[in-house]
């Protein structure tokens, strides 16, 4: 069958947690303050190696948006969503950008972030959860 055409990124990479397909670069993060149903999510100016699902208009916290789910081309799992259209002027900056759910991707620091977090050991108590910052 057809071979997947996968783009390889270099640098500080966010990749699919399941199959390690490269999805986005740290330097392309626009905002880390997004939320999804599953927790933290980051807005990226661009993502690669994703297929785009059906467009639909959703009412989100910040107003009406036309969005589409995005899926990893390597394993087909949903990794986030992309913004087609923002109805509110103040949200227009999101158009053409994509959100990756933090729980679906592995960050540049590897997987330890999630492992230690989930099991609750080796994690200093306190609020700082941006363990992948440096
Ligand atoms: Zn994948």
From TrEMBL:
Q: Where is this region: Disordered?
A: 96-134
* Pfam families on file: Yippee-Mis18
Is Metal-binding set as a keyword in this record? yes
Query: What are the record keywords, sorted?
Result: Metal-binding, Zinc
Q: Where are stretches of biased composition, namely Gly residues?
A: 125-134
Task: Provide the GO MF annotations for this entry.
Answer: metal ion binding
- Is Cytoplasm given among the entry's keywords? no
Q: Which InterPro entries does this chain map to?
A: Yippee, Yippee/Mis18/Cereblon, Yippee_fam
PROSITE patterns cross-referenced by the UniProt entry = YIPPEE
Domain Yippee, by residue range, is 12-109
Q: Which family does the record claim for this protein?
A: Belongs to the yippee family.
State the protein's name.
Protein yippee-like
Q: Which organism is it from?
A: Cucurbita moschata (Winter crookneck squash)
């Amino acid at each position: 069958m057809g071979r997947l055409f996968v783009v390889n990124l270099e640098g500080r990479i966010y990749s699919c947690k399941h199959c390690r397909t490269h999805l986005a670069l740290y330097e392309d993060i626009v905002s880390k303050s997004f939320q999804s149903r599953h927790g933290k999510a980051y807005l990226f100016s661009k993502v690669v190696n994703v297929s785009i699902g059906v467009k639909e208009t959703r009412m989100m916290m910040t107003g009406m948006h036309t969005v589409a789910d995005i899926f990893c081309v390597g394993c087909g799992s949903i990794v986030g969503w992309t913004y087609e259209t923002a109805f509110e002027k103040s949200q227009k900056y999101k158009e053409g950008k994509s959100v990756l759910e933090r729980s679906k991707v592995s960050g540049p620091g590897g997987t330890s972030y999630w492992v230690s977090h989930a099991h609750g050991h080796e994690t200093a108590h306190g609020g700082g959860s941006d363990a992948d910052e440096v």
